[in-house]
Design brief:
The complex is a heterodimer of chains A (114) and B (117). Chain A is mainly beta. Chain A has one domain: Immunoglobulins (Immunoglobulin-like), CATH 2.60.40. In chain A, 0% of the residues lie in helices and 53% in strands. Chain A contains no helices and 12 strands. Chain A is globular. The N and C termini of chain A lie far apart (41 Å). Chain B has 117 residues and is an all-beta fold. Helix content of chain B is 0%, strand content 51%. Chain B is built from no helices and 11 strands. In chain B, the strands form 2 sheets. In chain B, strands 2, 4, 5, 6, 9, 10 and 11 form a 7-stranded mixed beta sheet that branches. In chain B, strands 1-3-8-7 form a 4-stranded antiparallel beta sheet, with no helix packed on it. In chain B, a hairpin with a 5-residue loop joins strand 4 and strand 5. Chain B is globular and about 40 Å long. Chain B starts with a strand and ends with a strand. The chains are: A mainly beta (114), B mainly beta (117). At the A-B interface, strand 5, strand 6 and strand 11 of A face strand 5 and strand 9 of B.
Chain lengths: 114, 117
């Protein structure tokens, strides 16, 4: 079975500062990895995904993430955050075969302070 | 990216009544759809997986007689919450993927906020 751990439930950061949201996963088989953002009372928007190839993945809104297989991590980073980045961020995994159902982490609430 | 439309975006119903939530894939054929439930300030919990034309596969602990899922066509899946009670109040989100196209990404609907009073 797969699992996803997001250790930080909340991350406050000042505007224009860098941020890193941590994600670690556990799986005995190959997985695909995703980061989603959710604004209040809305669905999920895909930020970026790792399928294969380069371990550094760039996504929308200036976000990027690095897949580290040895540390089973997929941390999300942004060099300079904006107030509008305040939202809930979810890391998710799905196996590369079978039902492809997603397993989500518990989420990290990013709060950008002025 | 592909679009998944979920309707309604919010609904309020009386305790004991049933509510139906629709999930449509607008520009692709969704051979597989997933239904999630999200409690306030918590993560998404998978409720069930449905394949077009087949019975849904429910996750452990999810009452299949209470949460009826129908996936009769390649573009529509419905979740019916039967005899709803206040504890069923939650945010429900569907996602869809086209397995035949070997898409690695599932696309999410905008969610439905259900409030049972």
């Amino acid at each position: 079975a797969q699992s996803v751990t997001q250790l930080d439930s909340q991350v406050p950061v000042f505007e224009e500062a860098p941020v890193e949201l941590r994600c670690n996963y556990s799986s005995s088989v190959s997985v695909y990895l995703f980061w989603y953002v959710q604004y209040p009372n809305q669905g999920l928007q895909l930020l970026l995904k790792y399928l294969s190839g380069s371990t550094l993945v760039k996504g929308i809104n200036g976000f990027e993430a690095e897949f580290n297989k040895s540390q089973t991590s997929f941390h999300l980073r942004k060099p300079s955050v904006h107030i509008s980045d305040t939202a809930e961020y979810f890391c998710a995994v799905t196996v590369t075969s079978g039902t492809y159902k997603y397993i989500f982490g518990t989420g990290t609430r990013l709060k950008v302070l002025a | 990216g592909a679009v998944v439309s979920q309707h309604p975006s919010w609904v309020i119903c009386k305790s004991g009544t049933s509510v139906k939530i629709e999930c449509r894939s607008l520009d692709f054929q969704a051979t597989t759809m997933f239904w999630y439930r999200q409690f306030p300030k918590q993560s998404l919990m998978l409720m069930a997986t449905s394949n077009e034309g087949s019975k849904a596969t429910y996750e452990q602990g999810v009452e299949k007689d209470k949460f009826l899922i129908n996936h009769a066509s390649l573009t529509l899946s419905t979740l019916t919450v039967t005899s709803a009670h206040p504890e069923d109040s939650s945010f429900y989100i569907c996602s869809a993927r086209d397995m035949r196209a070997q898409e690695t990404e599932a696309f999410f609907g905008q969610g439905t906020r259900l409030t049972v009073v």
